[in-house]
Every structure is written in structure tokens, then in C-alpha cells.
Amino acid sequence: MNQANNVETSQENNIKTIGILTSGGDAPGMNGVIRSVTRTAINYGIKVIGIRRGYYGLLRGDVVELDARSVSDKSRVGGTFLMTARSQTFATAEGLQQACKMAQVFDLNALVTIGGDGTMRGAGDLAKLNVPVIHIPATIDNDVGCTDYTIGFDSALNTAINCVDKLRDTASSHERCSVIEVMGRKAGYLALHVGIATGAEIILIPEQPFDRDRDIIGKILLSRNRGKQHYIVVVAEGAAGGEEIAQYIETNTGTEARATVLGYLQRGGSPTYQDRYLASMFGIQAVKALVENRVNRVIVMQQGKVTDLDLFEGLEIKKTIDADNVKKANMLSI
User: Fold this and answer.
1) Residue 141 catalytic?
2) Chain segment 213-232, per-residue pLDDT in tens
3) Which one of 184, 195, 241, 314 is CB 3.0 to 4.6 Å from 200, fit for a cystine?
4) Domain CATH code at residue 101
5) 141, 154, 275, 308: which one is catalytic?
């Protein structure tokens, strides 16, 4: 009875078929979002078309129909089984027109996009051309301004923390400095949170200017004079290169320094509980918005609650590192 009522609601809102894609960098939890959107949509009598390889696949018409069985057991798997790719063509006027055409070819009444800020901007471009969209933020950088949390951030944090803990063990054995480079070209959320959680002596992020001699060499020398014999430096890739910082430290302090670039390790692996659970909640909210005739929305978490906002308003919201968190990190790094 409930499913029949749900089917009737979806028909009243003219949502019969939706497309779903993942774009940009992959993030743990994306598969959970696909599963949640698919099963929730099916519950409402809505057909789901998976678009492989993101916007690039949309331009090519690379699609597959999804059902309840095809998304079974996906929540525990990292990456995205729909795959992802970047497309320069999609950013052009011709590419956007081709994407709109493909949405018509496959009778898509709406498109659910999963990814970071670049994917969100692409969704906004499609919405301007009258393709109804719902965007779900998923990026390990946690830098989408309108939401407190993005799918994949917690999983990447746990992966990085595990690696840093192991490097701390070997650094203490050899009385050396370990410099760990984490992802974050423009945003330092990952580096800041990993640094705080692992007790790093130094955290370098793009948002916070630093002086190499004062903020790196000075800190290490002061720590050494207090009796400390090993050090952890966590650096976001957008702030400086790990190898370069390690060489500078060794040259100017005489302390052996080794750099480790975690790279794509942070994207892989099974999602944590938090990312599995929130992926499910974000997906449900996306379909709920569609059946309630709310389109061109972005799914967000604000003050612990999963809800949705106007997509274009969301695109205007910027996020910055909390200066108070930086101060707290400095307090703990003595």
C-alpha cells in the first residue's frame, strides 16, 4: 500500500526516471550514496539510470539501468562503481548542450550528481539549461561551502591518521622528523584535522601563511631543546611539497627528515561508519526532495541535520578554516 502511494506521488511530480553520476575525485561513501538513491527511488516507483564516467559519460550516453540487486553490498566498498572522469568538453557551451540532449534521449526527468565543488558547479550549469538537478557533496577535502560535512571526509581522515601513527612509531625509533603530505590543494581541512588528531608538532595548510624559519625550524629547535627527539609535520599539498619541507628541515637542523606522500591512499579503502550512514541519509534526502517537487537543490548537513538548500544559494556560500581551530592546534603542538 505504501509503495503504491509513493508511486502515485512520483507520477504527480512527473519524476519517472532519474539519472545518477559521480564526477571529479572519488571519495569513500560514493557507492553508498548510489545505493541509497537507487533503492529509495525504486521505493517511489522511479526508474534509475546510472551514468558511467561522470559528465564525460553523460556526453557519450554511457548509461546502465540500476535496480535493487545491482547496488547490493556497495556501501562497504570504496571508490565508485559507476566510475568517474573529468571532461573539458562538458565545460563548453557545446558540451552542456550535448549533456542536455542526452538527458532528453534517455527521458531523464532529473539528474542526481555526486562530487565536490566542481561537480556542483556543473550541476548548476545544467540547472540553468532547465535540467532539474539534485547535488550531493562528496569529497575528501570537505571544502564545499554550504555543508558542514562532505561524504568521504571521515574515511580519508581515518586512513591518514592510521598512516601517521605508523610513521610516528618509526620516527621515534630513528630520532627523525617525518613529513607527511596529505591531499588538499586549496583547502587544509584534512591536514588540520589529521594534525590535531595525531599530535603533529607542525601543521601547514594553504589558508595559513607561514614562515619556514620561524614556524618550522624554530619550532623543531625549541622542541629539541626541551628534550624531544622525533617530530611529525603534516602538510597539505597546496601549502608546500613534503619532499621540499623535509630537505629544508634536515639542512637547517641537522635532524634526519623523511617525507611521505600519502596521495591516493586517502581516497581508497572501505568507508567508515559515519560515511556509510550519512551516504544513506543524503541519498534518501535527495529522492525525498524530488518527489516533493523540490529540484535544483543541494543536500547538506548543517548543525547535525541532513536537509537541502537551493543549489544556486549553496554555490554562493564559501567556507574557510576556523581560525580558532588553528589556535587550538598551535596550543597542542608545544
Assistant:
1) yes
2) 999 999 999 988 888 888 99
3) 195
4) 3.40.50.450
5) 141
